[in-house]
Amino acid sequence: MTEPVIRSLLDTDLYKFTMMQAVLHQHPAAEVEYRFRCRTPGIDFGPCLEEIAREIDHLCTLRLDQAELDYLAGLDYIKSDFIHFLRLFRLDRRFIHLACRNGELELLIRGPWLHTILFEVPLLAIISEVYCRRHYPAPDWDQARRRLEHKIALVEQAPDRAGFRFSDFGTRRRFSRRWHRQVVEQFAHRLPDSFAGTSNLDLARRLGLLPIGTMAHEYLQAFQALGPRLVDSQKAALEAWVHEYRGRLGIALTDVVGMDAFLRDFDLYFAKLFDGLRHDSGDPVIWTEKALAHYRRLKIDPAGKTLVYSDSLTLDKALALYRRFAGQCRPAFGIGTHLTNDVVDLPILSMVIKMTRCNGQSVAKLSDSPGKAMCEDAGYLAYLSEVFRVRQARADGGG
């Protein structure tokens, strides 16, 4: 019998737990909605539906054991009351609505934010692995290992890689849980000076690696409904983060309403409080130049700031960005699908689960990349664009 895709609630990204702790302390009653979108055309999920449903049922039986709780408690930014809450926590199947119409997977998550926030990453990992199992039952593992060796050699042989650091961000679209572990083990063993760690808490715990992550888009999106005014939602979200973590986990995500609008809110106060910024859409060179110029206008030396790149990266792209900007800032790289799902030759699924509503109100991500906006309410998307003075984005999967 095939083993379950998800065997631990820690088999997810660190930022899910860091955001969850902030939700527990600041917005425990918030109600949210998330929706799944597959951007790859022509995918028929019908044959996978029953297996995906079984995997979700299993996911909802999992609890954190004492060793896992002790590990979380050992992270200096995780608080004791959150550990007590997690001791009793289990995902609730009632909050997931799953169907398939004409091959299109319909996945809706609706319920309390505190009790649904952990669904996204394991659900995407389940969908990815079930799809890969069904379509590639006998992959060429020798080819996969050769590709992995090529990636390791690329870094080993880079003449100017001193200081180059990258991390695994590949949980949600990995080929399989087992392959994910093999990839991370190899990078940690072969490239100890370049491989910084992993966003996956379970692998970080088991392999003694640094867990990496801060916040995701949903955190800033939710404040579009939770903040005092829409125009102040980014500032409210950043202020709440500072209140929760008091200087720890200081990398701010910039592209929920676009880099230009973000920088208008990221004033001297926030620029001094946060250690750096994360890029996740748009041209990374343009984004970097804007970030460097912003710090310099504020009379802050950007050489002391960390700029994290995490948008559809490959090692080639990461090394090129490092060569261009090392010395001007501290570049760091989170690489996902390129590391954990480079097994077969066919295109990998481009899929997401995004928050679409909070407390009954539409929320959205505008992004700096065309087609990445995801909102069901075109009117709200237009209003959000107007409030933040950005060009209106095209919604992905709007209804």
TrEMBL record:
Which CDD domains does the annotation name? PncB_like
All copies of the Nicotinate/nicotinamide phosphoribosyltransferase domain together span 164-390
Pathway per the UniProt entry:
Cofactor biosynthesis; NAD(+) biosynthesis; nicotinate D-ribonucleotide from nicotinate: step 1/1
Q: Which GO terms describe its biological process?
A: NAD+ biosynthetic process via the salvage pathway
- Residues bearing Phosphohistidine? 217
Q: How is it modified after translation?
A: Transiently phosphorylated on a His residue during the reaction cycle. Phosphorylation strongly increases the affinity for substrates and increases the rate of nicotinate D-ribonucleotide production. Dephosphorylation regenerates the low-affinity form of the enzyme, leading to product release.
Q: What is its EC number?
A: 6.3.4.21
RNA-binding as UniProt keyword: no
Taxonomically, which superkingdom?
Bacteria
Q: Where is the Nicotinate phosphoribosyltransferase N-terminal domain?
A: 10-128
Q: Which GO terms describe its cellular component?
A: cytosol
Task: Give the record's family classification.
Answer: Belongs to the NAPRTase family.
Its recorded name reads Nicotinate phosphoribosyltransferase
Gene that encodes the chain: pncB
